[in-house]
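Reminder: ligand-aware prediction takes two inputs, not one.
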Amino acid sequence: MDQGKTDFIRETIKKDLKEGRYEKIHTRFPPEPNGYLHIGHAKAICLNFELADEFKGICNLRFDDTNPTKEEPEYVEAIKRDIAWLGFDWGLNEYYASDYFPKLYDFAVKLIKGGKAYVCDLDPAQIREYRGTLTSPGKESPYRERTVEENLRLFEDMRSGKFPDGSRVLRAKIDMASPNLNMRDPVMYRIMHQRHHRTKDKWCIYPTYDWAHGQSDSIEGISHSICTLEFEDHRPLYEWFLDQLKIHHPRQLEFARLNLTHTVMSKRMLKILVDEKYVNGWDDPRMPTLSGMRRRGYPPDAIRNFCSAIGLAKSESTIEIEYLEHFVREDLNRKAPRVMGVLNPLKVIIDNYPEEKDEELEAINNPEDLSAGTRKIPFSRVIYIEKEDFMEDPPKKFYRLAPGREVRLRYAYFIRCIGVKKDGNGNISELHCTYDPSTKGGDAPDGRKVRATLHWVSAKHSVGAELRLYDKLFTTEDLSKNDFKKSFNQKSLKINDLCRLEPSTREAEPGQIYQFERVGYFHVDPDTTTKGLVFNKTAGLKDQWAKIKRKNK
Ligand code: ATP
Ligand code: MG
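Here is what comes back for the chain with adenosine-5'-triphosphate:
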C-alpha cells in the first residue's frame, strides 16, 4: 500500500487521530443493492479500504438496503463478487442497514417523544409543494402540531399495516424556512407494503436513505463517513439527527465523484441500458461496470492504479476514458503472453517451401518478461497474413508487403512476394512468395535489412475463434448534456469470425488474456466453455492517452 499519499481526507484523519477525536479509524463502503457496481464505485471502494489499511483500522461493507422496490439479492451477490475481485477483503464486517430496522424504529419513537418528529398526512405531491424552493421558504404542514400521543399511535398504526401506501409519512420536525431544503421537515418513513429481500414481510414502513444512512454509520461506530459531494448539503441533517439522539458522531467528508468521458456513471442509467437491451447484461464488456470490465479483460490492478492516480478532489471533473485504458495497457503489457493471430486473413503460398514439410519455430512468450519463456509455433507452406499488410500498389510510406518486396515473418523467415492472384471480382485471393531458408529465426546472415515484420499463422495449424471487437459505448464525450440513449454507439460491438489464431490458443480458458502481436489485447470470454473460442478485445496497442496528453500540453 502507498504510505506516501496525502490529500485532504488523509490530512483530516491524521489530525483527528492526533487530537484524540477518534481512537481508531473505521470506514465503510455503503452501496445500495439496486444495481451492479461501476468504476465510480471502485474509487470509493479503494479509498475506504485503503484508508482502513493505512491507518490500521477497519472497513465495513454495509448494504444500505432501505428501498425494497429497487433492491435484489442478485445485486448483493454481484457487489460482493466485484469488491473481492478488486482485491479487498471485508472479512466478517458485512452489515445491512435492514438489520437496524428495529433500532431505527426505536430511534424514531425517541424523536417523536421529544417532539422532533410527526406523522404527516399530506400526499407526496403536497409535500413537494409545501416544501418551497431555493428562493422561497416552505409552508408548515397542517399536521405538524399533532400531539406526541397522537403521533405515537399513528406511527404504530403505520407500522402495523393499518394504512395504504403513500397515505402517511413520518417526518422530522426541523425548520420549514431553512435555506437548506434538506432541513425542511424531511421524510423519515414511507409506507410501502413491499416484501424486502432480507426482512421479508416483517415491515411495511421503510426508512428513507437520509434517515437510515447516518444512523447506520453511527451504530457501526464509523469514524470517517466518506461520501460524494452531493451529500454535503445533507450533512447538517445527518448532524441534526445524531444531535437529537445523542449518539456517536462520525465525521462526514465529501469528495468529488469520478466521471469518465464517453460513458455514464449511474446505476439508474446503466439499468436502462440493460433492461432495454442496448447491451447484453450488466457484465457486457462495453459497460463501465466492474463486472463488464472484468469480462472485457481489465485487470483489477489496472483499476486500482487508475484510482490511485486520479487522486481525490473537492470539485467535480471528468477524466478521459483513455487515461483508464492507459493503465490497462500498462498492466497488460507486462503480464499478457504474446501469440499471433490474423484478424482478416490473406492466404500466402510459399512456392519454394516443400509441400509436405512442417517445422516448429521458437517464439518468445513475453519480451517484457523473459521468465515467461518460449513456445513452439508451427510453420508450413501455406500461411495467413493480415490483408492490410499487403498492397499491390503501395503509397510512399507503406513499408509492408508489396509485389517484389521482401519482409520478415516474425520468428520465421524473410519472404518476398512474387505473384498476386485475384478472384473473378478483381479482389486479391492469394499471394505467392518465396522464402529464404538462411533467414530462419528472422535474421539474414548477410546482414540485409527489411522494413517490416509481419505476424502470421500457418493455415493448416491455425484455429478459428469469435472475436468481439468493442468501441466506445457512447458517441459523445460529455453525456451530462446529452440524452444518453440517443448517444448510444450502434457500432460499439462488431463480431469477427474470420480470424485465424496460432494453435497454442486452442486450450485457452476463460479469464486468460493474450496480446495478439501487432493487434491488441484479447481476453477469453466465459462463453468459450459452451460456444468454442470467444475472445473480447480488451484494448488496442496504441496508447491514446499519450496523444491526448501531448495535445493538452
Ligand atoms: P449511482 O448514482 O450509480 O446509483 P450511488 O451513489 O447512488 O450511485 P451507492 O450504491 O449509493 O450508489 O454508492 C455507494 C458508494 O459509492 C457511495 O458512498 C457513493 O458516494 C460512492 N460512489 C458512487 N458513485 C461514485 C462515483 N462516480 N465516484 C466516486 N464514488 C462514487
Ligand atoms: Mg446512492
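DSSP finds 14 helices and 29 strands in the chain. The first strand starts at residue 26 and ends at 29. We will return to this case in the review session.
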